[in-house]
Amino acid sequence: MREKLKLGVNIDHVASLRQARGTVYPSVLDAAKICEDAGAHGITIHLREDRRHIQDADVTALKRAIRTRMNLELANTDEIVGIALEVKPDEVCMVPEKREELTTEGGLNILADKESIARSVAKFRDAGIIVSMFVDPDSEQIKASADIGAEYIELHTGTYCELAGDAQARELDALIAGAELANELGLKVNAGHGLNMSNLAGMMSIPHLDTLNIGHSIIARSVFVGLGAAVKEILEGMQAYESS
């Protein structure tokens, strides 16, 4: 039997709804509490350079309020890294970021900026912050994650979620191989991006998973069933992992 698969809920798009009208509601603090009460094992947020959803004040307030674990997604920029070192979330996940993108479009290219990323990883680890790299299931990027001292990778599942048929099966095979390699290198494995109830079953075949980070589909589903119920639906779908 596998270890229990954990759920981190990304609440960025609660903030997106708030920012759309410049109001003080809906509250990301209330959202985090509802998710935790429903059984989420952690809360994920992404502080983007353009502050399109999560704001600096949200990061500070959530760090004080979250009862489980706080996972802060961030780009490798001096400003954002500095904020993370000051706030000290439980975990950071380093991601690529482009201002024009709607959402993160793929994994981080560690090889293209290895020295700079390694310096940031060292700062986080010195501060007692767990470090994860958001990467595609590419062997060289996974090896680079281990080389620079990351403790986790988060496998980018967005490509898998966008495909169908044989192409999706091949991408799932790549995710499985990536998780196996990460485990061999001593890395822990998370996964996320684009996951919902329709494609969640495929994740149950990926070995060594610690946490799934899911956001947009949960917030979208909550419009119809409520946030707590949306979280519980995903948790129920994840239960198959423990017996597989």
Account of the 3D structure:
The structure is a single chain. This protein has 244 residues and is of the alpha/beta class. The protein is 46% helix and 17% strand. It has helices at 12-21, 28-37, 56-65, 78-87, 114-126, 139-147, 158-162, 165-184, 216-225, 227-238, 240-243, and strands at 6-10, 42-46, 70-74, 91-94, 130-135, 152-156, 188-192, 209-214. It has an 8-stranded parallel β-barrel, surrounded by 8 helices. Strand 5 (130-135), helix 6 and strand 6 (152-156) form a beta-alpha-beta unit. The chain is globular and about 45 Å long. The mean pLDDT is 95.
By helix and strand content, what is the structural category? alpha/beta
The gyration radius over C-alpha positions equals 17 Å
Number of DSSP strand runs: 8
Q: What is the averaged pLDDT score?
A: 95
Shape: globular
| Strand percentage | 15-25%
Distance between the termini: 7 Å
Main sheet: strand order: 1-2-3-4-5-6-7-8
Q: Roughly what percent helix?
A: 40-55%
SSE string: EHHEHEHEHEHEHHEEHHH
| Unreliably modeled segments | none
- Mind summarizing the main beta sheet? 8 strands, parallel, barrel
The number of helices is: 11
